[in-house]
Design a protein that fits this description.
CATH class of the largest domain: Mainly Alpha
CATH architecture of the largest domain: Orthogonal Bundle
Shape: globular
Number of domains: 2
Strand order of the largest sheet: 1-7-4-2
Order of helices and strands: EHEHHHEHHHHHHHEEEEHHHHEEEE
Distance between the termini: 58 Å
Oligomer: single chain
Radius of gyration: 21 Å
Number of helices: 15
Largest sheet: 4 strands, mixed
Low-confidence stretches: none
Mean pLDDT: 90
Length: 402
């Protein structure tokens, strides 16, 4: 097997939409990623994506963001506001874990702090398993922890959630319940399986666990990176904070700019299913691997300007180019959560009062509105257990700066 590497923006774009190249980044994390949507290829991927897309539609994202999410956000942040401080990574996991649990279809029956802590611990373990290729820990040790966590997840959360949905589905099939009254989540869609895809219990367990970790992990880090960039940018010019606080559309640009600089996955791996030629020096034979550097590609000067390596929310890009670059991918494997996290790109006719900003922007806005800023006595720490650019902790305090 030959390994090719590229950071060319256009080459990566052509590779990401090439149907002869299969996802390969998560092969190491098979214990949790085997057979989930993200790792499927070809007809299998098309069928599963079509089935699950019944949940992930823009109308529901907008409804969730504007009607449901604000209540969850206020309830989750309130104890931290009373305390006067919090850790952004911990908060990010907590708020997005509840969000992704709703979409995935995992009930939190007890509604107790201990139940939340239990699910949070499991989700963090799932994240370590999914990103195993970049882990600096013993891979065997991580896999053992993931298997143990999956068993606990099934017993405490998945089985009760399945039983409740299976009962509702039976009522629907017996004409005792309308279809619109069924839960709108991935687990319900998989259990109904109207497309008759071959799904077993272990696969459903991995699929739901994958959704939980993918949503929580990436969103928590995206929020923290965006706030970090904004804090630094406003230190350089305090007037910037006024512009951000008065213009939510501009704040969304700040978030998109940060997403460009800090893609959730800094690289993408693809394995060729047959001979593939991407450019003159990349001629792949079957089962060759191409490693694509999304972090570097997102700083392509020909696309994002001479200052592409720095945070600049005033950046101008062409109309056919997203400010976030390749962060959400493109083509069939484009991230399902793009509109949920990043929102919809505004245009000159956008009504700010009825715009879909994305939950990352809403999280950042809430923290800035509550006068959150880095704790000068408790510096943030990077995650030393992974090669990815993640934060281990980012302490902030609330109130006017002293």
């Amino acid at each position: 097997m030959t390994k090719f590497e590229t950071s060319s923006y256009e080459t990566i774009k052509s590779a990401l939409v090439n149907r002869d190249l299969k996802q390969a980044l998560y092969d190491e994390g098979k214990v949790i990623m085997d057979g989930v949507l993200l790792t499927l290829h070809g007809d299998e991927h098309r069928k599963r994506r079509k089935l699950e897309h019944k949940v992930f539609q823009r109308d529901f994202f907008k409804y969730y963001e504007q009607e449901l999410f604000p209540k969850t956000l206020n309830e989750t942040i309130l104890p931290f506001l009373k305390k006067g401080s919090m850790d952004l990574i911990d908060f990010g996991y907590r708020i997005t874990m509840n969000l992704t649990a709703d979409f995935a279809g995992i009930d939190r029956v007890k509604k107790t702090p201990q139940e939340t802590e239990n699910l949070l611990t499991l989700v963090k373990t799932f994240s370590q398993g999914a990103t195993l290729v970049h882990s600096k820990r013993s891979h065997d040790e991580v896999n053992k922890e993931v298997l143990k966590a999956l068993d606990k997840f099934e017993k405490e959360f998945l089985s009760p959630s399945k039983q409740r949905r299976e009962k509702l589905i039976r009522e629907f099939k017996n004409n005792k319940l309308k279809k619109e009254d069924l839960p709108r989540d991935v687990l319900t869609i998989l259990l109904m399986n109207e497309d008759n895809i071959n799904l077993n219990n272990d696969l459903i367990k991995r699929e739901i666990a994958f959704y939980l970790q993918a949503g929580s992990h990436s969103t928590a880090n995206s929020m923290t990176h965006a706030l970090h960039e904004i804090f630094i940018w406003c230190q350089k010019d305090p007037q910037n904070i006024t512009k951000i606080s008065e213009d939510s559309i501009f704040l969304q640009r700040c978030v998109h700019e940060s997403m460009r600089l800090h893609p959730a996955s800094p690289v993408a791996w693809r394995k060729s299913q047959c001979p593939v030629s991407l450019e003159k020096n990349i001629n792949m034979k079957k089962n060759d691997l191409i490693i694509m550097d999304l972090h570097e590609a997102n700083q392509d000067k020909s696309i994002f300007g001479k200052d592409s390596h720095i945070f600049n929310p005033n950046r101008k890009v062409s109309k056919n180019q997203f400010l976030w670059g390749l962060t959400f991918g493109i083509g069939l494997h484009m991230c399902f959560g793009r509109d949920l996290d990043g929102g919809v790109v505004p245009n000159e006719n956008t009504d700010p009062s009825n715009h879909q900003y994305g939950i990352v922007t809403l999280l950042v806005k809430k923290i800035l509105n509550e006068n959150g800023y880095p704790d000068p006595k408790n510096m943030p720490k990077v995650d030393a257990n992974t090669e990815r650019s993640n934060w281990a902790s980012y302490p902030i305090i609330f109130g006017e700066k002293k």
